[in-house]
Amino acid sequence: MKLMVIGCGGVATVAIYKCCENPIFTEILLASRTVSKCDALKEKLQSKTKAKITTATVDADSFDSLVSLMKEFKPHTVLNVALPYQDLTIMDACLECGANYVDTANYEAEDTEDPVWRAQYEKRCKEKGFTAYFDYSYQWAYDEKFKKAGLTALLGTGFDPGVTQVFSAYALKHYFDEINYIDILDCNGGDHGYAFATNFNPEINLREVSANGSYWENGHWVETKPMEIKREYDFAEVGKKDMYLLHHEEIESLAKNIPGIKRIRFFMTFGQSYLTHMKCLENVGMLRTDPVMFEGREIVPIKFLKALLPDPASLGPRTKGKTNIGCIFTGIKDGKEKTIYIYNVCDHEASYKETGAQAISYTTGVPAMIGTAMVASGTWAKTGVFNVEEFDPDPYMEALNKYGLPWVVDENPKTVE
Ligand code: NDP
């Protein structure tokens, strides 16, 4: 099966490494903006896999650049592990060239000052009640087109979004008649030793964390100020951490796809030093996404900041500690209320030793490969645009155990107030 992977950053490195371990992928084209990164990865992996690896330069913001490469390579499936800004262009190119589409993050506009985008955004804020810069409407709107083309688009197969929704589908299938409450807990207990760095793309990460929080309750969104809701949780294999309620994209799809749901919240752990640095950067304007004039030329502050911060891909050798990501479900089984917690613990140093990338990239890259394999093998075979919880979770859960992200079901967990 011919796979084209777009992007060659931290997540892509792990996804490609894992694709090379899965015999379903017989030819893999690594295509990204900086082809030297693809060449270096090919050099590292070619001798360890039967898959034939090739590389190419592509500008994923350009439909024509994508189409010309896809027409030449003829991929069965395209895995987009570039940035969320490119999602729609890559989906258009897949439709043009007859390829299935897989990604790990929903569409975001790069220029949030664009008046056409802003008008649509403000309308959505009013209608839906949350102000995040991203939502699924843009990609869900492609459903008919993918159906007509007889193709699958699988959205958000990282860890969160991704595995958290597979956990939800699995809990519903095996443990509950109805799920009423989901708390998604994302804990990174890793320490890279820098005063400040982001674990994945700084632009995407800082935008997410500095935005308003929100959760889904009784059929509508409740919005909070950034970091307004704080809780402490004692994470298995990590220990006690402060965590904060954030808006997160899988809340939107789970609210649509889990019948009987009453509340979904998402919490992420942050240390005080990270939050203080971020607030300071925000206060001085360094998180701005609109261009400003500097010495006679335009610069976008957050892009300039990205150039100054450590490359997330470089954190691997320095990061020690573990991540613990999972979901606490409360619902009804045989007329009785019950609660379970499904989670995975991933070790930064072990991830680095295996793939050359830290656990944030590892916990995203492994599910990126698994989701791609589900589509490529026809195990998940429906035409249209789907989120991961809309398929049978069992083969995906099995693959998580096989490819390095084993999970635990705790049937007596501590809940979050
Ligand atoms: P990186 O910034 O490390 O990598 C992005 C890669 O995409 C780089 O290789 C970059 O090229 C390439 N790229 C960017 N723009 C273009 C373009 N126009 N054309 C071609 N290639 C391009 O990001 P990460 O690996 O950290 O993240 C990848 C994706 O994974 C993101 O969408 C992120 O939101 C998502 N993610 C999802 C998570 C989940 O759990 N679901 C968790 C973490 C991340 P270059 O090398 O030239 O810069």
Assign an overall shape: globular
- Low-pLDDT sequence parts: none
Any idea of the CATH class of the largest domain?
A: Alpha Beta
Q: Using the coordinates shown, work out and report the CATH topology of the largest domain.
A: Dihydrodipicolinate Reductase, domain 2
Oligomerization category of the chains in this entry: single chain
- Specify the CATH architecture of the largest domain: 2-Layer Sandwich
CATH superfamily of the largest domain: Dihydrodipicolinate Reductase, domain 2
Main beta-sheet strand count, sense and barrel state:
9 strands, mixed
Beta-strand residue percentage? 25-35%
Radius of gyration: 20 Å
Present the secondary structure layout.
Elements lengths: L1 E5 L3 H12 L5 E6 L2 H11 L6 E6 L5 H11 L3 E4 L6 H11 L2 E4 L11 H14 L8 H4 L2 H7 L2 E4 L7 H12 L3 E11 L13 H9 L2 E5 L2 E5 L5 E6 L3 E7 L3 H9 L5 E7 L2 H12 L8 E3 L2 E3 L1 H8 L13 E12 L2 E12 H8 L3 H18 L7 E4 L6 H9 L4 E4 L7
Parallel strand pairs: 1-2, 1-4, 2-3, 4-5, 5-6, 6-17, 7-12
Antiparallel strand pairs: 7-15, 8-9, 8-12, 10-11, 11-12, 13-14, 15-16, 16-18
Helix pairs in contact: 1-14, 3-4, 14-15
NADPH dihydro-nicotinamide-adenine-dinucleotide phosphate (NDP) binds next to helix 1.
